[in-house]
Amino acid sequence: MATYQNDIDTANSLIETQGQTWGVNAENVARMKAQNRFKTGLDIARYTAAIMRQDMAAYDADPTQYTQSLGCWHGFIGQQKLIAIKKHLESTKGRYLYLSGWMVAALRSEFGPLPDQSMHEKTSVAALIEELYTFLRQADARELGGYFRALDAAREAGDKAKEAEVQAQIDNFQTHVVPIIADIDAGFGNEEATYLLAKKMIEAGACCIQIENQVSDEKQCGHQDGKVTVPHADFLAKIRAVRYAFLELGVDDGVIVARTDSLGAGLTKQIAVTNEPGDLGDQYNSYLDGEYVESADDIANGDVVVKANGKLLKPSRLASGLFQFRKGSGEDRVVLDCITSLQHGADLLWIETEKPHVGQIAGMVNRIREVIPNAKLVYNNSPSFNWTLNFRQQVFDAWEAAGRDLSAYDRTNLMSAQYDDTELAVEADDKIRSFQADAAREAGIFHHLITLPTYHTAALSTDNLAKGYFGDQGMLAYVSGVQRKEIRQGIACVRHQNMAGSDMGDDHKEYFSGDAALKAAGKDNTMNQF
Fold first, then answer.
1. In this model, does residue 217 exceed pLDDT 70?
2. Which residues form the active site (predicted)?
């Protein structure tokens, strides 16, 4: 924020030459400009794209420099997350926001709660990006407003040391605005629809867009059954559409995450177009399940036949008209998807898996890196995984392979609380704790995210409050379970009037009306109790 004094000087010059009748104060002008650093969503997208590119380069040089995010379904949740990061960790470096299509569907649709199947309004995705950045910019304005009031108090007290300290805080201010990785699902239609929505998302501030290779009108959550993929040509057209949107809007270093659901997707809606043996279409078709035929006698009415692997194949087709892939071909299809996406404009990969297993992820990434050495992933540390059971079973299996005595454990019942204090459970928790660092080092994961954690935290905290408040604790449930903890943990939101902007409003009223301003922060404001 070293431009603060420059902005004061510029405003002074302007007022002297043009605004002697305006009745404005140059320092107030500079303060308002500092509190509104990002004028448009495109300003944010360009700023955060550069940050993300720097972080990607840092990870390439040192895999301990991975990045993280949590999914947020409301601007307030995103704001509080960044305020907490600055308070506890002092820096936002390497910490992003994730915009989850799952949570948009479940929590932000005008239809009400929906499954993650691209049935929600596409405009709600861009609207949430704008909302998140509105709240992050407000967090900037609120924190800077506190510094400005402290600066005035130091000047009034004649405390030069304190004035210099606060001025340094202003000059070195770190914004709450960080990159958002934004989920565009499967593009919400054809490639033109994808392009139009991508533009809206970028204009709202998105520097990074994640798109998946499912059929857009039959899209399923990555952790549900019934996923249907599209041929590579269809997916690459949408990747290009997103790139064109970035370039048209001047976000030249925008980031595209290509997600493949092929590991769990056993169906395709189309047989790919192929022009010659070995091309992408031919490779896609080579994974189709079916029967090889020798003559027309083997073909029934309505059957489809395609030449694949040098032979005539009659693909297995379901009553829905969808075609099946061969069982066990998922990992090979994932590797082909990832290599193809990186060779045609994507920057990062997302492999949706059925469990959090470093070895499984590394096995696929190592194959991809044989072709593209700097391939790296965004990985979903999904709440759809039972992390406790998965890692306890991983430890159980490792111990079994090592010949250890496991008679005290029932592998199928390891979720039970009876095991919580056992050596196996402690080792499993250690592996969960180090999972992100281990996977960043061993499996090429640049960015770790949790898609919908705040969906679960909202439900859990509400359950705890409701249980006590409507039970025998009454008001004590709120006081002991919420407010007392807020006060003792220094949660800024305990002064909710301040968080909602009342002090900023008072500042502006004073700028506009001087001594005549009717301010909210007087002695009778109950916020003074905190």
1. no
2. 221
Q: Which residue reads 């194949």 in tokens?
A: 313
Q: What are phi and psi of 374, to 5 degrees?
A: -100, 20
Contact 92, 178 (CB under 8 A): yes
- Per the CB < 8 A criterion, the answer to whether 339 and 371 are in contact is yes
Whole-structure pTM value: 0.93
In angstroms, the CA 352 to CA 262 distance is 8
Contact predicate 109/181, CB 8 Å: no
Give the Cα separation of 74 and 84 in Å (integer): 16
Mean confidence (pLDDT) of the chain? 93
Angle between helices 232-248 and 191-204 (to 10 degrees): 40
Coil/strand/helix, residue 307: strand
Per-residue pLDDT, averaged over 359-364, amounts to 96
Give the integer Cα–Cα distance in Å for 426 and 428: 5
In order of 181, 361, 499, 528, the CA distances from 129 in angstroms are 10, 30, 20, 34
- Which residue segments constitute the domains of the chain, with CATH numbers given? 36-287+325-456 (3.20.20.60), 473-529 (no CATH)
Residue 183 among known ligand-binding residues: yes
Q: What is the DSSP string of 251-264?
A: -TT-EEEEEE-TTT
Q: What is the 3-state secondary structure (H, E, C) of 279-296?
A: CHHHHHHCCECEEECCCH
Q: Which residues are catalytic?
A: 221
Query: Between the CA of residue 34 and those of 86, 145, 173, what are the distances in Å?
Result: 18, 10, 10
**Terminal CA-CA length for the chain:** 30
Within 13 Å, how many C-alpha atoms sit on residue 201's CB side?
33
Phi, psi of 379 (to 5 degrees): -125, 135
